[in-house]
Amino acid sequence: MRCVYFSTANLRPGADKKVVFLTARVHPGESPASFVCQGVIDLLVSQNPVARVLRDHVVFKIVPMLNPDGVYLGNYRCSLMGFDLNRHWQDPSPWAHPTLHAVKQLIVGMNGDPRVSLEFYIDVHAHSTMMNGFMYGNVFEEEERDHRQAVFPRLVCHNAPDFSFSNTSFNRDVMKAGTGRRFLGGLLDDTSYCYTLEVSFYSYMAGVNSVPVPYTEETCILLHNGQTLNCPLTWAYCICDRIMLAPF
Q1: In the chain, beta strands by DSSP E
Q2: Three-state secondary structure readout of 184-225
Q3: Which residues form the Peptidase M14 domain (predicted)?
Q4: How far apart are CA 222 and CA 46, in angstroms?
C-alpha cells in the first residue's frame, strides 16, 4: 500500500493561511473544465516535489462542480432553475442559486479573516470557438496593479505549450459584471488575483506554424508517467513561483 504524506503545518489552529480557490463547471456543458480540475487534484495529492511545496504552504479550496444539477440534467449553460449562475455572483439567492450562494459566503468569510490571504481565485471554463488555453483578467485604475495581473498568465504561457498569452485579455465588460472573476476582482484587495481560465473544446497550436493538436481528456488530466508536464502541473509551477517570492 502506498502512503501519501501530507504536511499540516499550514492547517494548525491560528496559523496564517495562503489560499488558492478554484471553481469549475459553473456552465454544465463545459466538460473540459472538469478534466482540468481533475488534473489539478491529481497533482496536488501526488508525491511530485512541487505538490509537496504547495501543500506545505498553500491551502487549496476546490469546488469541481458549481452547477451539479445542470450537469445531471445535461444542460449546456443553465441550472435546474434556468439561471446562468455565472451572472449572479453579485446577489445570489440561497433558494435559486444555493451552490453559488454558499461558495460566495465562504469566500466573503475568508476575505474578512485577517489570518487568511486569498492569493488566487481561478474559475475554470471551456471555450467553444477559440483555440488553446487562455485567461480573462480584470482591468484596474492603478497601472501597477494592471501590470501585476499580467504576470501570472505570462508565467503560464512560458511553461505550458498549449497556453496562448495573445488570446488572453483583460477587461471590465459590463455584461460580465456578475461573473466570479469580475465580482471577486472588485471585492478582494490588490494582493488577490482573479482569473477566468479557459481551455478550448477542440484543439491547441503549440507554435505559429504548427498543426492543431486535438484536446482529449488525457491531455487535460495530469499524465500518469510523471514525466510529461501538462497544463495543471505547469499552472502549479506558476503558483509556486509566486508563493516562493512571498515570506511565509
Answers
A1: 17-24, 59-63, 116-127, 133-138, 169-171, 193-200, 203-204, 213-214
A2: HHHHCCCCCEEEEEEEECCEECCCCCCCCEECCHHHHCCCCC
A3: 1-230
A4: 10
Q: Is the CB of residue 136 less than 8 Å from the CB of residue 181?
A: yes
Contact in structure between 7 and 55 (CB atoms under 8 Å): yes
Q: Identify whether 30 is a catalytic site residue.
A: no
Termini Cα distance of the chain:
33
- Write the pLDDT tens digit of every residue in 193-234: 999 999 999 888 877 777 888 888 777 764 332 333 334 445
The conformation of residue 176, written as its DSSP 8-state character, comes to G
pLDDT digits (tens, 9 = 90+) for 136-165: 999 988 888 888 889 889 888 887 888 899
Of 130, 150, 140, 145, the C-alpha closest to 198 is 130
Q: Is 181 exposed, middle or buried (0-12, 13-18, 19+ CB in 10 A)?
A: buried
Q: Are 146 and 58 in contact (CB under 8 A)?
A: no
Backbone angles phi and psi of 42, in degrees to 5: -60, -40
Answer with the residue of higher pLDDT: 31 or 221.
31
Q: Which three cell numbers stand for residue 108?
A: 466573503
Residue among 119, 143, 198, 218 flagged as catalytic: 198
* pTM, to two decimals: 0.86
Residue type for 219, please? T
Average pLDDT over residues 48-69: 90
pLDDT at 2: 46
More confident residue, 99 or 219: 99
C-alpha grid cell for residue 95? 433558494
